[in-house]
Design brief:
This protein is mainly beta. Among the domains are: 37 residues, no CATH class; 152 residues, Leucine-rich repeat, LRR (right-handed beta-alpha superhelix), CATH 3.80.10. The protein contains 3 helices and 28 strands. The strands form 3 sheets. A 14-stranded parallel β-sheet has the order 2-4-6-8-10-12-14-16-18-20-22-24-26-28, with no helix packed on it. The protein is elongated and about 80 Å long.
Length: 318
């Protein structure tokens, strides 16, 4: 039924039977029937649900305090000056671009959308989901308050000044290198990428997972806040490596541990060809030496071998 006919029916019911629709005069009503908007209409305190609605456009300077849902709508573009206090969901929409200086207070869902480019001045308070989009580049100075998901995208490089307060997923993306000034407070997942090296002095706040990559060595000054998962092709560790959580070396080609190694959690050497432990090795958790030559040494001999270092937890052996 056309909007004009529907409006006539509502007007008839109101004039003849004094029955007025509950949403008459609301933003939804005015958008549907193309009525003029007031300044008050541009400020929506709660959520605005336009999923699968026939509305085709939104007014400039619209502010939504809650969630803006456009999934399956007929809207093809977003208005200038749009601000969303919580989440903006554009999955399965026909929208191909975002307005400059778009502000989203929490999550921006673009996964599977037709978006091809991110605008300048984009601000996302928490998570930005770009998996399986047609986006090929990110704007310089992009700052994401939570996670940034670039899984299976065609993006080949990351911009200078990128800051991610959460985790960064590059799984199966076309990224070939990481910028020197990249800041990630959470974890980084690199599985299935073509990245061959990490920048010197690289620091990761959470986990670093490089299994399934072509990375064969780690840079000097590497610091990992939580767990470090290594690729099978890794052959050595850098000096003064800092791992705040667990370090998994099993299934790698590493034959010796580096000087100044600190592991805040457990150190897993299961099945490696490591024959000695370096002086000064520091392990706050357990040391797993199962299926290694190190099992021929007693616990006392191993602890003496690494002095002035220490192993605070247990030494696990067969």
């Amino acid at each position: 039924m056309k909007e004009e006919t529907l409006k006539k029916i509502f007007n008839f019911l109101e004039s003849k039977e004094n029955k007025s629709p509950k949403f008459k005069g609301s933003l939804m009503w005015k958008l549907k029937f193309n009525e003029p908007l007031t300044e008050e209409d541009l400020n929506v305190e709660g959520d605005l649900d336009l999923e699968y609605k026939n509305i085709t456009s939104l007014p400039n300077n619209l502010k939504v305090g809650g969630i803006l849902l456009l999934h399956g709508s007929k809207i093809t573009s977003l208005p200038k000056g749009l601000r969303v206090g919580v989440d903006l969901d554009l999955k399965k929409t026909k929208i191909t671009s975002l307005p400059e200086n778009l502000q989203v207070g929490r999550d921006l869902y673009l996964a599977g959308s037709a978006i091809t480019l991110l605008p300048k001045g984009l601000k996302v308070g928490r998570n930005l989901f770009l998996a399986k989009t047609k986006i090929t580049s990110l704007p310089e100075g992009l700052k994401v308050g939570g996670d940034l998901d670039l899984m299976s995208t065609n993006i080949t490089s990351l911009p200078e000044g990128l800051e991610v307060r959460g985790s960064l997923s590059l799984i199966a993306s076309k990224i070939t290198s990481l910028p020197k000034d990249l800041k990630v407070d959470g974890s980084i997942f690199l599985r299935g990428t073509k990245i061959t090296s990490l920048p010197e002095g690289f620091k990761v706040g959470g986990n670093l997972a490089i299994s399934g990559t072509k990375i064969k060595s780690l840079p000097e000054g590497l610091e990992v806040g939580e767990n470090l998962y290594l690729s099978e092709d890794i052959t050595s560790l850098p000096n003064d490596l800092y791992v705040g959580g667990n370090l998994f070396i099993s299934d790698t080609k590493i034959t010796s541990l580096s000087k100044g190694l600190y592991v805040g959690g457990n150190l897993d050497l299961f099945g490696t060809k490591i024959t000695l432990l370096p002086k000064g090795l520091k392990v706050d958790g357990n040391l797993n030496i199962r299926k290694t030559v190190l099992e021929k040494y007693s616990n006392q001999e191993l602890r003496k071998m690494i002095k002035p270092g220490f192993i605070k937890g247990s030494i696990i052996r067969d």
